[in-house]
């Protein structure tokens, strides 16, 4: 047998070391990723017999113990899979950090090239950056192919039919039901999206939607034309003023460290490293400039304030584990303040408000459709061999988004463990939470100390409760994705 508290405590030590390693690498402070040594140090956590014992004990347990065991099982199984591919993960993460691309006469770090591409107005130059990055991605794919194949094999070793069945069990998410809901969403919004996207592309690039490539969309949704409203030098102060409205003083929080420094090897994908919850939380952003900086910073601030507000007396599993849809919903709550007319009137004066809001809502619609398509694709990817999956990726994403996708992104555009499903659930929960806050605390809930107290109480529970349970505490029967469609339709209509 095993002692639940001892296993949970050891899990916390492992998490802290692993999170620190990701932070150092992704923040550009360390080129080499070395997860292997951390997994080796804690390898007794990820033995098959321990995982099977926890699974069996969970099936016999009930109440709080069953919940803790379920979260621990999810964590241990996910990391058992990661341990199986740890050398391959180190290899491709290190490659991403060390590789450079040559564009004309300039050498650009691979990760930084994505930032440069999003900021490059010359479509020809942007295309060359894109092609150079894709050549690196094609070489990384050799590693990723082996990695995905090994993940599939390891899932079967644990007694599951396939990788899909494994994650359906340990995350307790109806992945196929969610996929169907997103298919309905995509079908419902298809005409609206195609019309708005076609006009958006035509007026800004002068080309048809069918000719657009992924690098064009990165540039278009960078929103450079709105940079003068979202001043780079004011973004941190704007965040501080916003948080102050709900009673949070960011500059005085000793446990939340904000890292906005530019480093050549820093990942362009913003993130939070919750190294020790709630005592050591790092919010890391790679400055790009303008609108995109603000949405990214506010999104990650939602994560940081959530983890930084967790009750330190909670069981370890509820501090670190659980349904990630919950923390993602808090992140979206703050991100979408940058779409809120009342927040904008308070903090950002925009004289092209209608144009900006059309842009912001189209951006949101794009991402909802993109992640719905990603879920469909990933269900195919993880049920089959890799043969033909590059074409499946291209076809699935193009059907939903209407522009050209490269086959080479079929593995690099995938996160482990169906994290795309967590985002989709989070988008739905955020819509419901925001409606609740507006109903209880007013349209300017972001300027209400009572709203702040309500959120901090919600955050203090960590991720003990899943997204459905949170929705139910707000007065909803379930997660309802039709609210997402109605919100977007009401804006454009």
Short overview:
The protein is built from 21 helices and five strands. By secondary structure, it is mainly α. The protein has a three-stranded mixed β-sheet.
Features:
493 residues, mainly alpha, Neurolysin, domain 3, 2 domains, two-stranded antiparallel ribbon
Description:
By secondary structure, the chain is mainly alpha-helical. The chain has 2 domains: 4-171, no CATH class; 175-492, Neurolysin, domain 3 (Orthogonal Bundle), CATH 1.10.1370. The protein is built from 21 helices and 5 strands. Strands 3-5-4 form a 3-stranded mixed sheet. Strands 1-2 form a two-stranded antiparallel sheet. Helix 3 (48-60) packs antiparallel against helix 4. The chain is globular and about 65 Å long.
Number of helices: 21
Instruction: Give the biggest sheet.
Output: 3 strands, mixed
- The chain-level mean pLDDT equals 93
Overall shape: it is globular
The fraction of residues in strands falls at under 5%
Report the count of strand segments. Answer: 5
